[in-house]
Amino acid sequence: MSAFTFKEATVTSFHEALRNKTVTGSQLAEFYLDRIEAYNNQGPRIQAIVTVNPRALEEARELDAYFNETGELKGPLHGVPVLVKDQAETAGIVTTFGSKAFEAYVPEQDATIIKQLREAGAVILAKTSMCDFAAGWFSFSSVTDHTKNPYDLDRESGGSSAGTSAGIAANFGLIGVGEDTGGSIRLPSSFNNLFGLRPTTGLISRNGFSPLVHFQDTPGPITRSVNDAAKLMDVLVGFDKNDAFTSATSYTSDAGSYEASLEGAAMQQYRIGVLSDAFGPDTDPDCAPVNEQVRAAVEWLKASGVEVVEGLSIPDMAQWTEDTSLYITQSKNDINRFLSKRPNAPVKSFKEIYEGQLFHPMNDLFHDINGGPEVPERDASYYRKRVRQEEFRRTILHLMMENGVDFLIYPTVRVLPPTREELYAQKWTCLTFPTNTVIASQSGLPSMSVPAGFAAHLPVGFELVGKPYAESDLLRFAHAYEQQASPRREPAL
Fold it and tell me: What pLDDT, in 10s, does the model give residues 26-35?
């Protein structure tokens, strides 16, 4: 029996130690709370945590008492301290959506996934930082300013699930929940050496989550291990009468069996295609180190017996992603609808937030959204863009079928985590930042960011895009890869 290690713990290692009586849930919660105090609130001040659940330790002790009395775990996430992006409403705990307009907003209802986590025995340890209303690729928030990358404190943690990713990387919690509209799970997972899964929209309820583009929005796992991601999927995937999009669960037979499907997983069961159009120019010094690391990962896969098809292409990729982008067109309307349904919300419209300057000045997408239409359907480009999303999905799937591949692979983001100095100098804006995550988001396909290694000390991720409802296959491939490559390396905090 090996000793339990608090840092880099998994749900499995924690539950084994719990059963062996070598650790308690309250001890684990205390470990994370101490690290949050030492590294988030003091020391390097990572700024990943917005609000600690004031009852977290009490809830952990209650679960310990339940286990001591019954000898049973309350559920598959019994006692597991979870970090949740502050986009999900939590009854009795401040929920800011990243905006200082909501610094005192305490919802009366839990988001559906919060209820699911609690029913599974989890402890909601803390709410994590995000850019204002998830509108951006970076961490800039009018509540927390910015979230530092634990691997390099001068660099970005990535957004919009900045705090969940930096917090899980820095061991502030055991598992994390993010949300992904255009890449907000996968981009920060790539920047923080983590596994981040974007499930098909509708597999996990968005009820109680602030929206950005409702037909692209989806919560999902951000974890240090694939097995933990699968455990979280088993808890969260399911129909919710309060979110009509969750009728999508009728299309999959994998709900509840994601972890079980990892048994016997082998990378060699799958064929992958390298999407050459998604690599940046090798002549660009920002792209070259990422290209080199992802290509090295592809070569490692080939040497490990994975069949790889090189040189796949989607002509006019930049045009495709531009033609299928609806953030400016859709977001104002979606945010307005969400706020108008909350009687206790301090503001009732995007306009109030914008005109009150209740957002971080570096969130340039706010200006674009403000200039967007009040009613998306009245915009001349709206229906064309919606149709183009369908055409984009069909184009990607045709390429995969034609070449007999299960996944496409490419860099999650074409560049390394930028420095804050570069961002303040406006080297990139939100709409010009070279993230590849929009490919899956705007084509409606499931995808996963997987740690590819490091360029010097900075994490690099590769993205796998699968066919519709291929979440189990993505997890199986990533799990087998993780077992052989051991890509996870904790930051030196």
Answer: 999 999 999 9
